[in-house]
Design a protein that fits this description.
Elements lengths: L3 E15 L5 E15 L3 E5 L6 H8 L7 E6 L2 E2 L5 H8 L2 E4 L13 H12 L7 H11 L16 H13 L5 E5 L7 H18 L2 E6 L2 H7 L2 E6 L2 E7 H6 L4 H8 L40 H5 L5 E4 L2 E3 L5
Parallel strand pairs: 3-8, 3-9, 6-7, 7-8
Antiparallel strand pairs: 1-2, 1-4, 4-5, 9-10, 10-12, 11-12
Length: 319
């Protein structure tokens, strides 16, 4: 028996792209991705811009259409749910968005923003909702008198706290943090990350954490999936990935992380060139055109994500 809250198998998300002469091509933003998250833990998905990490998270939450795969959320086939069953299941998964300036409705007061998911999903009797909103403001470190303010009257960190309170309003089990601190300055980032860790500990939350900042990921995650061009190229627990990366792309990402530790000497590994055309991906390894370790076998077929050491998996023939 597994205690996984979320299990994702072979998830794919594709978008139609109109070409010349009326032809349509398909862009696979997420291509055959699988992972799971145990209750109370955090899985981070990392990768450069355009790798598909945010689209994978939105596909899990059914905020974009999926073209294939299976998502099991708390024992239910989430992608197959409709109507009232889908409404009830949606209360279990909420999203904290990247930009605290554009993710809040500027016409609503803060209390209405936090209350909105309860009103739309009907997760709490109407008479109990004001007290729940006041409780949420206290949980995220906002004062009661701030409930009557509009978003423009808050700082960026305070707006993100409103976003966190909104995500908590339906008592979710899974929260997707989509670059939740990337738009904040470093000092405020630390405050928000510590708040997320405290809420996870106190409420037993499970996080799917999307980020390109490996310093943040190292602080927040239990397991890490590294994505490149729509595919997971490495999957491991946090210590294994940072101490013993097996995929060249992961090694390059980690070598770019600045460190104040003078004893930690990491050879800088540069990634030359640009990623291949996503509308016409290569038949072999998608990283082959930029990999310093490439050989002929890499160009022949896409290497599978296979175990290299316990639960540590990598999609590289040299792993």
């Amino acid at each position: 028996m597994t205690n996984a809250l979320l299990t994702v198998e072979n998830l794919s998300v594709r978008f139609p792209v109109k070409r010349r002469w009326g032809q349509t091509s398909w862009l696979y933003a997420v291509d055959d991705v699988s992972f799971e998250i145990k209750r109370g833990e955090t899985l981070a998905i990392v990768g450069e811009s355009g790798s598909g990490k945010t689209t994978a998270a939105l596909g899990v939450a059914r905020l974009v259409g999926n073209s294939g795969g299976f998502v099991n959320l708390d024992g239910e086939d989430f992608l197959a749910l409709e109507g009232g069953a889908l409404r009830r299941a949606r209360a279990k998964v909420q999203v904290i968005f990247q930009d605290p300036y554009s993710s809040l409705n500027p016409r609503l007061r803060a209390e209405a923003i936090v209350r909105e998911p309860m009103d739309s999903l009907g997760t709490l009797p109407r008479a109990e909702r004001p007290d729940r909103v006041a409780e949420l403001f206290k949980q995220v470190g906002l004062r009661p008198e701030q409930m009557k303010l509009f978003p423009h009257q808050f700082s960026g960190g305070q707006r993100q706290r409103i976003g966190i309170a909104r995500a908590l309003s339906t008592n979710p089990e899974l929260i997707i943090c989509d670059e939740a601190v990337s738009a904040l300055d470093v000092a405020v980032q630390a405050q928000i990350l510590n708040l997320l860790r405290r809420l996870q500990r106190d409420l037993g939350l499970t996080y799917l954490f999307i980020s390109h900042d490996l310093g943040v990921v190292q602080h927040m995650s239990d397991h890490i999936a590294v994505m490149y061009m729509g595919k997971i190229v490495e999957y491991a627990d946090r210590l294994s990935l940072f101490n013993d990366p097996r995929h060249p792309y992961t090694k390059a990402l980690l070598s770019a992380v600045p460190s104040v530790d003078k004893k930690r000497k990491v050879e800088r590994m540069l990634i030359p060139g640009d990623p291949p055309d996503p509308l016409n991906p290569p038949s072999g390894c998608r990283f082959a055109s930029r990999c310093p370790l490439v050989e002929d076998a890499c160009l022949a077929a896409q290497p599978p994500l296979k175990a290299v050491n316990g639960s540590h998996r990598a999609a590289c023939i040299k792993a």
